[in-house]
Write a structure and sequence with these properties.
The complex is a heterodimer of chains A (about 290) and B (about 300). Chain A has about 290 residues and is mainly alpha-helical. Helices cover about 70% and strands about 0% of the residues of chain A. The longest helix of chain A has about 35 residues. Chain B is an all-alpha fold and about 300 residues long. Chain B is about 75% helix and about 0% strand. In chain B, helix 4 packs parallel to helix 7. The radius of gyration of chain B is 21 Å and the shape is globular. The chains are: A mainly alpha (about 290), B mainly alpha (about 300).
Chain lengths: ~290, ~300
């Protein structure tokens, strides 16, 4: 490259080793703070307990007639729990990709990272690896806890469910990349933005309840415009052996797969654009 | 900001301290107000964050509202069932009050925890310990700021939420609700110290906050009456200041009953008794919180220092 001294070309193998080192470093860092795992397990129990008691306050008191429209607890438990799994991974992507950029800004290490020839893509992706592992463990623990509280949850079409989950996860990573791009501009606001996005996805994508309880204007005006809604609907309905609520499963799968492929690319492109702008303005390390 | 006058100029250095500054009551007060104003100025620069924090409780209140409709089968059945369990059919306002009050608790506690963590990360916490003013005025200024921000948050979210959810906000009960909120901030200050100690010790402010916010939501009964909890958890909830604040605000606005009734206090004295309990917690929690904070702080200073993260 003109004007630059380079000792040798960076090969694909170098990139792989570099990525593996970054993942190792992130895992090592996380292992030094076991409190994060303990807090994750505690949070999981708290969320389940909180929603269970909230739900219980809407059940008919003992002795009164049961509404014929009311769903059975196991089906509702499945709806809430499978939504929760996607929420946990999406949340991890938002905090661990988006917010970690903010932490680098505050620590003053973000500019230093740009002096290194390491791939920016790997730097972003490696941040989420440990947390995906953590969310996976938490989901398994949560599944056990929910089964203990509500009885066995429906588990149908596991293979296809995992394919849907894979694309949903890729989509979530892409959203994390987009948030990292916004972090370069939003700075301190990003903390509130992540909280807002968490609740926005929670409600707009009906993560803890079926889409049918949302007002029609919200389903048509919000839910149907967010690809994550289709991930939630398809993942949930696949595992519960029910028909999706928004579109036929073939159409939903096409949207989920397309989003899973496009979202990380779009997110990374956006990140590079924002980063270039921040560097031009000398605001990369500013916070 | 209060300007320093000529009589504030020191005649001699404060005992046991180096430097030219003698710290007077007036200079401490100026520092408290300075910190409060500085924080408000910083906040005013993030208008996007201001809008988001006002919308958060409103969006949050939607969650149990929709869960309720899903559980009961429809909104009519949800209102009927909720009235039988919680004493009011106005479940949307019930959830909005819970979410808005939770925001006050969260702001007061998380602002302290994240402040300590952010000072650690930016490397300025150790410098604050070297300031001749001591840490108390700085902490007080931060607490004043948190209280201002929390009240603004509550009122804004409550107004927007009532509009969005299309419910009557029962404004006649608002003055009593505000008394509960403001009085409740004193024990919350104690909880903030405990949280600060936890962050100093464990460092991971985000993990700690993620866990505690759900724990607080659960124990304070933000979205359900605490009578639904098993006896052991109910007893725990009754020793927890946010439970009394939330119920006080809720009862003032929705007339859902005072918590002291569960302790055998006649209904006509319920409000006074609830305020009395909050006052008592307002003495116990700050003293306990401060003692724990000082103990942890001393340990941290003696080991690796407060700047270590």
């Amino acid at each position: 490259m003109a004007g630059r001294v380079r000792l040798r070309e960076i090969t694909l193998r170098d990139r792989y080793e570099e990525f593996a080192e970054m993942v190792r470093k992130n895992l090592l860092e996380q292992s030094r703070y076991p409190i994060e795992f303990v807090a994750g397990v505690g949070m999981l129990f708290m969320v389940i307990l909180m929603f269970s008691f909230s739900a219980a306050s809407f059940t008919a008191p003992p002795g009164s007639p049961r509404d014929p429209n009311a769903p059975d607890p196991s089906s509702l438990g499945g709806t809430m729990f499978y939504g929760f799994i996607l929420f946990a991974f999406l949340s991890s992507a938002l905090w661990n990709i988006g917010f970690s950029i903010r932490e680098e800004q505050v620590r003053g290490t973000l500019e230093t990272l740009y002096m290194s020839p390491a791939s920016k893509f790997s730097q972003l992706l490696a941040r989420v690896f440990g947390t995906i592992l953590l969310s996976g463990i938490l989901s398994i623990i949560g599944f056990g806890f929910i089964t203990f509280v509500l009885g066995p949850l429906p588990v149908q079409n596991l293979g296809f469910g995992l394919v849907v989950f894979f694309f949903a996860l890729l989509g979530a990573v892409g959203i994390g990349f987009m948030l990292a791009a916004v972090t370069l501009v939003a700075k301190a606001t990003v903390n509130h933005l992540i909280q807002f996005l968490q609740f926005f996805f929670m409600i707009g994508c009906a993560m803890f309840f079926p889409f049918r309880v949302l007002p029609p204007w919200m389903v048509d005006g919000v839910s149907r415009w967010i690809p994550v809604s289709y991930s939630v609907d398809l993942f949930r309905s696949t595992l519960m052996g029910a028909a999706p609520e928004l579109l036929p499963w073939q159409s939903e799968f096409a949207i989920v797969a397309a989003f899973g492929i496009i979202s990380p690319l779009l997110g990374y492109w956006l990140y590079l654009k924002m980063e270039a702008r921040a560097r031009e303005q000398g605001k990369l390390g500013e916070f | 900001m209060i300007p320093l006058r000529s009589e504030d100029v020191p005649e001699k250095t404060a005992p046991g301290r180096l430097g030219l500054t003698r710290v007077t009551f007036r200079s401490r007060l100026a520092l408290v107000l300075g910190v409060w104003l500085a924080n408000l100025r910083i906040l005013s620069r993030y208008r996007g964050a201001l809008v988001l924090v006002l919308l958060l409780p409103v969006i949050f209140a939607f969650l149990p509202v929709f869960i309720g409709a899903a559980v009961a089968g429809n909104t009519g059945a949800a209102a009927t069932n909720f009235a039988a369990n919680a004493g009011t059919a106005d479940y949307k306002l019930y959830m909005l009050i819970g979410a808005s009050t939770f925001t006050v608790v969260l702001v007061l506690i998380s602002e302290s925890a994240t402040w300590i963590r952010s000072e650690m990360q930016t490397g300025t916490l150790e410098s604050l310990y070297l300031a001749p003013t001591g840490r108390a005025p700085i902490l007080l200024g931060n607490t004043l700021y948190s209280a201002t921000f929390a009240l603004f948050n509550f009122l804004g979210a409550y107004a927007i939420g009532a509009l969005v959810l299309g419910v009557d906000p029962h404004l006649d009960g608002l003055p009593t609700a505000m008394v509960f909120l403001v009085l409740g901030m004193i024990p919350l200050w104690g909880l903030a110290f405990l949280m600060g100690a936890l962050v100093l010790k464990l460092k991971q402010a985000n993990a700690v906050m993620n866990l505690t916010q759900w724990l607080f939501l659960f124990l304070m009964g933000a979205f359900f009456p605490i009578v639904m909890l098993p006896p052991f958890l109910r007893a725990m909830a009754l020793t927890f200041p946010p439970t009394w604040i939330n119920n006080g605000v809720r009862s003032s606005l929705l007339d859902t009953g005072w918590l002291s009734a569960h302790l055998g206090v006649p209904v006509e004295f319920g409000m006074v008794a609830d305020l009395g309990v909050l006052l008592l917690l307002g003495v116990v929690f700050p003293v306990f919180g401060w003692l724990v904070f000082r103990r942890v702080e001393t340990q941290v200073v003696r080991s690796a220092g407060v700047g270590n993260f």
